[in-house]
Amino acid sequence: MKKGLLTLLAAALTIVGCQDYDSQFKELTTLVTNLATDVAGLKTVSDDIATLSQTVNGLATALDVAAIQADIDLIEAALADVATEADLDAVSDALATVQTDVKELLAASAVINQSITISNEATLQYAESLVSTATDAPNVIVNGSVTVVSTFANLDATVTARINAVTGKIATILGVEGGAGLALTHSASSVINFNNLAFIDKTMEISGGAFGHDTLTTISGNVTETHTGAIDYPLLASAGVIAIGTDHTSVSFPTSANITSISTIGSATNELWLKKATSVVTGKALVSDLTAPKATAITIGTGKAQAGDVVIATALNAVINLTSTSVGGNLEVSGGASQTTFFGSSLTTVGGTVEVGSYAEAHFPLVTQFGGNTSIGAAVLDLSALSSNVSGTLVFARAVTVDTQKLVVSSNVTYTSATTAHFASTEQASMTLPAVLTLKVFKQNTKTDLDVSGYTTMTNFTIGGAQGAAPFISTVTNTIVIGGAALTTVNILDGDYDVVTINGAAALTSLSTAGEIRDFTLNNCDALVSATIGHDHISGSDASDLVVTNNLKLASFAPSALKFLGNIDISTNAALASIDLSSATEIPLAGDYTVAIDGNKLTGTYVAATAGSTTTVSSEAEVKSNDLFSMMAMVDLSIASRASASIGNVTYTFDVDIDDIDAATAGAQDLDTKINTPAIAGSLAAVGIGVDTNFKAIVKAE
Fold first, then answer.
1. What is the pTM of this model?
2. Contacts for 165 with CB less than 8 Å, ≥ 6 apart
3. Which of 528, 485, 525, 518 is nearest to 502 (CA)?
4. pLDDT at 33 (0 to 100)
5. Distance (Å, rounded) from C-alpha 573 to C-alpha 218?
6. DSSP, res 369
7. Band of residue 656 on the pLDDT scale cut at 50, 70, 90
8. Average pLDDT score, the chain
């Protein structure tokens, strides 16, 4: 009961001219009558509302009904608990207030129940007899059409003023059934304004000159406007089909305006050819093809998903806004000058190809995917949400920085001028980066290989990896190859990598690693003096292999987190005077591994074995080296693993040497050879350091 009554009451008090008044109030009366039996005394209320409905007949959107709406709120609150006749007293009081407000509104308004035509002196005088132009006279509702042809006033400004005095009092035009609402023909010599017109129920046709309508909010029918001046609808909320001329100097509809369609006369629906307009704003009308060679400000788009293609062509430096949330077809923005800026700030996807000219800026901050081949020539790009290019290639010809850090590359990408390029995950075969200096990959896929050694201009490389999932031995299979003649800085961030190889980066001076790497190689990086090695093995995968070879200036090497080491090769690093492998506090469960440490600059003390005599005890050789001793935790675990099957079965075999700091035996010491001289039957020296048990017996801390 409450809902039906309030809905119809509110409708009656805010009714607009396009509705069928008789049917509306007949429906209201019928509903109230049917509800009358629900509560004793409700019939009285229904009678009051029926009476009120007869007086609301002329109300339209131009009238101020704010006070009435406030009283409706009181009625709604009172009806919430209606159960007895006494409860209806509050409702009756509220209705009395509404009736008073309506009477006041009607006293300040007037309804003209016929059409008005002004085309000569006689019809003007008749219009003046219908519409009072006194300052305190009310605005009027015309229950018919309005036609003004002001040619007869071209030579007399006073006549034009008289016409505007009449048209300035018209607030609502209800039009004629199946016909016109407003038809206006005027010129610069007799400009006619409708400064209080808010609502037109039927069609509107404007020709000859610009139309003054600062309060017009609704046109229920179609609109035709042809003249050489500006089109400006500052408050328009909705309109039917709009057809405009090609010679307008500007076109401006609110971006929120709901327009059935818009086109220029002679063009296809949704196409605009505006040869003189310096600015174009088309509300939410769908525009598929816009040509505006003189426009410097353009805003088009539906504010929602748009089917089909969008083509925008201009010639000057312009700011172009496309407000649609998606484009189902192709997007082409062409022409313009080098300082043009394109904003697709609401777009999330483009279904087809994309072509954007050689502009200053292009902004696609929400686009996650371009559905086809994409070529954007802007120098500054905003592609911060771009995550895939499944169906087409990407070509960005002029942008110096291309920040596509969410992009998982699946088709070819070409960043022609980019000195800085960002990706989420990528592989070398799909990337063309001829000018890149800084390359960053933020979340490399655990099964996607990447080789960046071919980028000869690249100086800085950063890579982050995705996190693998069990079983890691099969889910983390990527191989990362890093190199390049100009490369100076490498940062490996968190994430999982199966194989990382840094090779032949002769200019490399800064290296840091993190995350988890199963197989790590550092080779032929002649300028590198030190590195921050912070990565660990891949938990759940095979043991980590470590290769550090032929790095001319590398002075120290000390992984801080690397456990579960398998094969180790730290060799021929001419300046390497310090290693620390004490992070290897855990070992694999099984396997035979080799440890080769030779050709470096490691130093220690070598004590040769001595044969015993009848008066002396024999002694095995000793190697006193903190560098080698840093592996003792790993050795202890290995030996222990073979003593207890429950913790695995691992063997390390060593081939190591150091430079002896003892002056008597200065120089490189091949420890296997030295330990074997002199040979001592049955001693460890007979086989050299060899397996880890010998290493345990021979290697001591300094």
1. 0.76
2. 128, 133
3. 525
4. 44
5. 82
6. E
7. confident
8. 85
pLDDT above 70: percentage of residues in the chain: 78
**Whether the Cβ atoms of residue 342 and residue 356 lie closer than 8 Å to each other:** yes
What is the domain partition of the chain in residue ranges? 2-108, 597-700
Answer yes or no: are the C-beta atoms of 622 and 607 closer than 8 Å: yes
Give the separation between CA 147 and CA 203, rounded to whole angstroms. Answer: 11
Peptide bond into 365 cis (omega under 30): no
Please give the average per-residue pLDDT across 141-157, as a whole number: 95
CB neighbours of 141 closer than 8 A, spacing ≥ 6?
Answer: 17, 58, 60, 62, 109, 110, 111, 112, 171, 172, 174
List of residues 6+ apart from 270 with CB closer than 8 A: 261, 262, 263, 285, 286, 287, 288, 289
Per DSSP, helices labelled H in 108-195 are 121-130, 157-167
Q: Which residue, 459, 450, 462, 427, is CA-closest to 498?
A: 450
The two three-digit tokens of residue 274, written as one number: 């505006």
Token pair belonging to 501: 């190889």
State the amino acid at position 192 in one-letter form.
I
List phi, psi (to 5°) of 121. Answer: -60, -40
> Which residue in 463, 553, 440, 469 sits closest to 513, CA to CA?
463
3-state secondary structure of 503: strand
Question: Poorest-confidence range of 31-45, 135-149, 296-310?
Answer: 31-45
8 A C-beta contact, residue 226 and residue 199: no
Q: Per the omega criterion (within 30 degrees of 0), is the bond before 138 cis?
A: no
pLDDT tens column, 528-577: 999 999 999 998 889 999 999 999 999 999 999 999 999 999 999 999 99
Read off the pLDDT of each residue in 448-456 and give the average, rounded to a whole number: 96
Counting every residue, how long is the chain?
A: 702
Stretch 278-286: mean pLDDT: 97
d(CA 333, CA 355): 6
Buried b (16+ CB within 10 A) or exposed e, 280-301: bbbbbbbbbbbbbebbbbbbbb
**What is the phi/psi pair of residue 414, to 5°?**
-130, 115
Residue 266's identity, in one-letter code, is G
Start-to-end CA distance of the chain, whole Å, equals: 97
* Strand bridging mode 622-624 / 603-607: antiparallel
DSSP class per residue in 207-259 = ESS--B-TT--EE-S-EEEESSSEEE-TT--EEEEEEE-S--SEEEE-TT-EE
Q: How far apart are CA 88 and CA 36, in angstroms?
A: 12
C-alpha triplet 687, 691, 697: angle, nearest 5°: 80
* Rounded-to-integer distance, Cα 372 and Cα 235, Å: 39
- Whether the pLDDT of residue 520 is over 60: the answer is yes
Do the Cβ atoms of 6 and 72 come closer than 8 Å? yes
Q: Which residue has the higher pLDDT, 60 or 361?
A: 361
Q: Please compute the mean of the pLDDT values over residues 662-677 and round it to a whole number.
A: 58
Q: Could you give the strand order of the β-sheet that contains 510-513, starting from the edge strand earlier in sequence? A: 401-403, 420-423, 438-444, 460-465, 489-492, 510-513, 532-533
Q: What amino acid occupies position 95?
A: L
In this structure, of 36-40, 501-505, 527-531, 690-694, the range with the lowest mean pLDDT score is: 36-40
**Buried-state track 428-451, b at ≥16 Cβ within 10 A, e below 16:** bebbebeebbbbbbbbbbbebbbe
Structure tokens at 105: 């509104």
